Amino acid sequence: MITKYFTKVVVRFNPFGKEGMSRIIYNESIDDDQINELLIYSHTILNTQILYKAKLFLASIPPRQRILGTKIENELLNSNSTKEPLIKVTYKDKKEDTIDPRVLSFMEIANKLDGHSRQLRLKETIENH
Fold first, then answer.
1. Tell me, what CATH number does 105's domain have?
2. Keyword Mitochondrion: yes or no (predicted)?
C-alpha cells in the first residue's frame, strides 16, 4: 500500500460491537441453544475480521512516516457507542477517502487507497521532471 501521500489517518472500530452480527436463516431442525451458539460464533468471527483489518491497516503505515508528520488517530469504540467503524484517510492534496471496514477486505481497502496515491505519485513525477 502506498502511504507516502497520507497526511491524516483515522481508524475507528469496535471489536465487540453489534455490527458484526449476521443473519441466520431459520431452520426448524435447529433449536434455540444452537441458534444462540451460531449467533455468538458469527458475531465473534465478523468482529475479529473488523479488528484484524483495522490492525493490519495501521501496521502497514511505516514508522518513519509517522515520524515525518502523518497524524494517526485510533479510536476504540465501546459496546454502548453509536459510531460506526471506519477507516478515513486524508491525502496531501486534502482529498479524503472514507471506507467501511465491514464491507471491504483488506486488499480491497489497500487497492482503493492506492488509486489516489498513484495519481499523486504521477503528478509528483511530472512536476519534478
1. 3.40.30
2. yes
